[in-house]
Amino acid sequence: MEATASVFVLVTMALALARAVRGPTVYDRIAAVNAFGTMTVLVLVLVGFLTDRPEFEDIALLYGLINFAGTIAVLKFVKYSSLAGPQEPRPAAPRAEGRR
Amino acid sequence: MSLVLDILSWALMVTGGVFCLLSGVGLLRFPDVFTRIHAASLGDTLGAGLILLGLLLQAGLGADLVGIKLVLILVFLLFTSPVATHALVQAALLDGLKPWTRDGRPTEGSLNPDDPAEDDAFIRDARDGGRR
Amino acid sequence: MKHALSLFVGLYVLWLLLSGHWDDPLLLGLGVTSAALTVFVAWRMEGLDHEGVPVAVVLRALAYWPWLLWQIVLSNLAVARCVLNPDRIAPRMTWVPVSQSTDLGKVILANSITLTPGTISVQVDGGHILVHALEPGSIHDLFGGEMDRRADWVEGSLDRPAQADRTTDPTTGGA
């Protein structure tokens, strides 16, 4: 029965991946990748139960936390073009409605 | 007893899976990034919650800590997902994206980036960094 | 000191739960070391105060969670209906008044708003929160103020910080 749930979650991952590919803005992609990461956590736990290997739960726990840190890091990078925060002013770039 | 538990946990997991699926469908169907984030939070909350709850019924809060770790995963997810969502929406708004509305008019509330009384250093930095 | 100690105890309990080895002196010692190191780093980052380690809030938050989880279930059903029928959605973004006096209270409320699908808090500014909602109905609920009252109750166990605490200019970065 973990297999049923795994199939649902895997299909969701495919849908999230489709949104990540289609965009159109970079924020759509980040949101999709974030959702993809949450689903990865669920798949890790489900596979751990399917194969009777509880170690997978530790990996899932860690993956969930790294997924969060990664989302914030990517957002910060998109915002400032640097992980250290706002620094040098960037040359002006024409921006109609969000970056692609 | 064990059979009842199995059926209950199966039902929880399938319901959770359906909610995950709905969040994926919403991610594809909704018109703009702000509405899509609402759909994504569907899978982060009830989707993940029901699947982990179903697994918790299987594992039990036994001495081998499997159940405790499931609860911890859920708690971490519930703490981190709103922060990531909030950061994402705020970044998108600061970048100048306009939320989609049904009648095409602008929303009644906005970040009002030209307000000089704005006293949030982070917002100011982000805006000035993005403007130049 | 109270905050440092409770953070240390919390971290060590987390270590014990995650490791599962409660009889190996080496692992227990490593746990003490890493928990102490984390408390030291938090102290250096000046995170050891009523906001970084809100001890007093935790107990009331436990009583607040079941209600919040129920709200999450309800709003999940509403958003799920929207996914099945996208014609239902009519996004709105508007400022909602809040009654919390401390920053921590506002964070609790804003996080609760974001955690319930269908509403996202975008920005906190003084006595208002900018909320993006998928359906007009969910924003009506927020104006009704049930969640505000409950978050107020969770916040109520805080010893209100002195006024001097809130006059620090965020641009100078405080200390």
TrEMBL record, chain A:
It is found in: Cell membrane. It holds the Pfam family MrpF_PhaF. Its main location: membrane. The chain crosses the membrane at residues 30-50, 59-78. InterPro entries: MrpF/PhaF-like (IPR007208). Keywords: Cell membrane, Membrane, Transmembrane, Transmembrane helix, Transport. It is a multi-pass membrane protein. GO terms for cellular component: plasma membrane. One of its GO terms (molecular function) is sodium:proton antiporter activity. Belongs to the CPA3 antiporters (TC 2.A.63) subunit F family. This is Multicomponent Na+:H+ antiporter subunit F.
From TrEMBL, chain B:
The chain crosses the membrane at residues 7-30, 42-61, 67-89. Residues 98-132 are annotated as: Disordered. Residues 121-132 have a biased composition (Basic and acidic residues). GO terms for molecular function: sodium:proton antiporter activity. Keywords: Membrane, Transmembrane, Transmembrane helix. InterPro entries: PhaG_MnhG_YufB. This is Multicomponent Na+:H+ antiporter subunit G. It comes from Rhodospira trueperi. The lineage of its organism: Bacteria, Pseudomonadati, Pseudomonadota, Alphaproteobacteria, Rhodospirillales.
TrEMBL record, chain C:
GO terms for molecular function: monoatomic cation transmembrane transporter activity. Residues 156-175 are annotated as: Disordered. The chain crosses the membrane at residues 64-84. InterPro entries: Cation_antiport_E. GO terms for cellular component: plasma membrane. Coiled coil: none annotated. It comes from Rhodospira trueperi. It is found in: Cell membrane. This is Multicomponent Na+:H+ antiporter subunit E. The lineage of its organism: Bacteria, Pseudomonadati, Pseudomonadota, Alphaproteobacteria, Rhodospirillales. It is a multi-pass membrane protein. Belongs to the CPA3 antiporters (TC 2.A.63) subunit E family. Keywords: Cell membrane, Membrane, Transmembrane, Transmembrane helix.
